[in-house]
Amino acid sequence: MRVIAVPLMLLLTSAGLAAQQRDTPAPAERATPTFRNSAAELVVLPVTVTDRSGRLVDDLPREAFAVYDEGQRQTIEAFSREDSPVSIALVIDSSGSMNSKMGEVVAATLAFARSSHPEDQLLVVEFNERVRDALDGRGITASDLPALERALQGLRPAGQTALYDALTDGLDHLERAEHARRVLVLVSDGGDNASTATLGAVLERARRSNVTLYAIGLYDEDARDTNPGVLKQLAEATGGTRFLPKSPGRMLAACQQIAREIRASYTVGYAPPARDGRYHHLRVEVTGSGHQGLRVRTRPGYVAGQ
Questions:
Q1: Which of 3, 89, 173, 195 has its CA 20 to 30 A from that of 23?
Q2: CA Rg value for the chain
Q3: Model pTM?
């Protein structure tokens, strides 16, 4: 799927796609919308739904969803619940404090790839006080486990933590990524102590992107520079979530959970009510009988491009 340069605004293949989706029986809803240059601009949202027990719910129809932009209900123009490939930037902390954790990071990251769609595009960014593309500018598929393992085994923990610079670089990589849906998975054990970028700049950049950010914090209880609140802030700003696993097993489970969420997410698109350059607050709900108690997660808003 092609992506244009305007954050969060993707273009439909033809003006007739919305009509086709309205007139076609339910199985057509499973087809993944293809986006490119056309006259109809859409805000496109990845949406995750869980029940009261936290189990993923991935079989809801279009009619179950209601989207509100600044409190006003919008007409859903595009909808998909297809398990389709996405582009994923793995942003991995390789600072000195990660030395004792790298084995579990490698194992959990490979488990993440095994649980992902085999055609997902993976990009790997490593960072200490410097930021480096661990694949030397290449993207690989999730099914290419040997190439991913070689890149991860090449990480040599040392130095400080340029967390915000690494996130900026990960977002840069995703702007040039292959698939329309983009995800960033951050693994780190500390707060930032070496970046030139600021948290405010990273948050603003993330809000203007169409990237969903998941954060895994591997914090030691006696570490002084941890900042789990920052990871939560970054994740919630993009419709993702934060994990704080306390053991290697829980980290592996967190990575597998993220992969399952990506594969079970819905894609919902609607025409923006305005292109005023302002930040618009969003709300997505699941309505109808039998859907009580379901929880919906998506990004809390977007910047309406002019």
A1: 3
A2: 19
A3: 0.87
Closest CA to 6 of 275, 305, 238: 305
Nearest alpha-carbon partner for 229 in 244, 240, 213, 211: 244
pLDDT digits (tens, 9 = 90+) for 187-211: 999 889 999 999 999 999 998 898 9
Identify the residue whose tokens are 């998975």: 185
Residue 147 sits in a domain whose CATH number is 3.40.50.410
Cβ proximity of 297 and 266 under 8 Å: no
Contact present, 199 and 230 (Cβ < 8 Å): yes
Tracing tokens 């696993």 back to the chain, one arrives at 245
Parent domain of 241: 87-263
Asked whether residue 16 is assigned to any structural domain, the reply reads no
Q: How many domains does the chain have?
A: 1
* Burial class, 230, CB count within 10 angstroms (exposed 0-12 / middle 13-18 / buried 19+): buried
Say if residues 114 and 184 touch (Cβ distance below 8 Å).
Answer: no
Q: Is residue 251 in a domain?
A: yes
**Residue 276 falls within a domain, yes or no?**
no
**Would you say residue 121 lies in a domain?**
yes
